[in-house]
Write a structure and sequence with these properties.
285 residues, 11 helices, alpha/beta, 6-stranded mixed beta sheet
């Protein structure tokens, strides 16, 4: 099946870009949350341009779902780029213990100015940014100890900015998740769709599943084979044929023994997103 052209830029995302532009002057630093499974594809280039004047902490979130070796390499890359990079899990709070030390280091000069002016203890302000479904709301709720940010496992839930207090010396400006108008690289759009940053109901589920099959057979063939008990040579099969084979292996059959590729596609995507296939990173460093 041909790859899909994925475009996703509803009105609230255009509004978010305006909110970022208007409010970036009101914060001291940026917390940019990336999906550790796609640390390149989940990085909005427009956000980089709009917030480049501020120092930043990068959270490689959902690190428990990603290939640990790849995550370590991306952490090193972003650290070398001048950011402070932390591997995190917004559900459990893993990695959060490093945030206070990180922003203290990042904003040392500003904190010293506060102290010199007799304002020691004044809270810093951070803008929290990321693409939809990257775990921003879970991060906000975990670090604030509340449930002020609405959390659902689908993109486009947070629609307006909100200020949230924390107990670690910073106030957070939570911004809606925002994509960008055009994905110059089709792989970026596909990776965002595979991880759920783009709503599934605007896509052809079988084409998306074939894209995932293509990624897995190239990057993680042993995980694919182990999960779906594939022992035969499939090198000559197309991605769609391999999807059918997975359906047969799982017993998803229609009348006449025809593989139910729609059901197979839904299950394949769910099992990738829930880490049942294994810890996988789709971007390559």
């Amino acid at each position: 099946m041909p790859s899909q052209t994925i475009q996703w830029f509803p009105g609230h995302m255009a509004k978010t870009e305006r909110l970022i532009t208007e409010n970036i002057k009101n914060v001291d630093f940026v917390i940019e949350i990336l999906d550790a499974r796609i640390p390149i594809s989940s990085r909005n280039p427009d956000i980089l341009k709009l917030t480049s004047v501020k120092p930043r902490i990068i959270l490689l979130n959902k690190a428990d779902l990603a290939d640990p070796d790849a995550t370590a390499k991306f952490c090193e890359k972003y650290t070398n780029d001048g950011c402070i990079c932390i591997q995190s899990n917004s559900v459990t709070g893993k990695g959060f213990e490093k945030i206070q030390k990180a922003y203290t280091e990042l904003c040392a000069e500003k904190l010293q100015r506060f102290e010199d002016k007799g304002m020691a203890g004044r809270k810093l302000r951070a803008m929290v940014l990321g693409v939809p479904n990257v775990g921003k709301s879970s991060f906000i709720n975990k670090i604030s100890g509340s449930k002020k940010a609405k959390v659902e496992n689908r993109p486009g839930v947070t629609l307006t900015k909100q200020w949230v207090q924390t107990s670690i010396g910073i106030d957070l400006m939570d911004m809606p998740g925002v994509l960008w108008p055009k994905f110059e690289n089709s792989t970026v759009g596909e990776n965002l769709a595979l991880t759920g940053a783009v709503k599934d109901d605007i896509l052809d589920i079988e084409s998306l599943a074939c894209t995932l099959v293509s990624r897995l057979r190239t990057l993680y063939p042993s995980l694919l084979e182990a999960r779906y008990k594939i022992s035969e040579d499939y090198s000559d099969l197309s991605d769609y044929d391999l999807l059918e084979l997975i359906g047969k292996k799982r017993g998803f059959l229609l009348r006449g023994g025809i593989p139910d590729t729609e059901k197979t596609s839904k299950i394949l995507l769910e099992e990738f997103r829930s880490c049942k296939i294994g810890r996988i990173t789709l971007d390559i460093i």
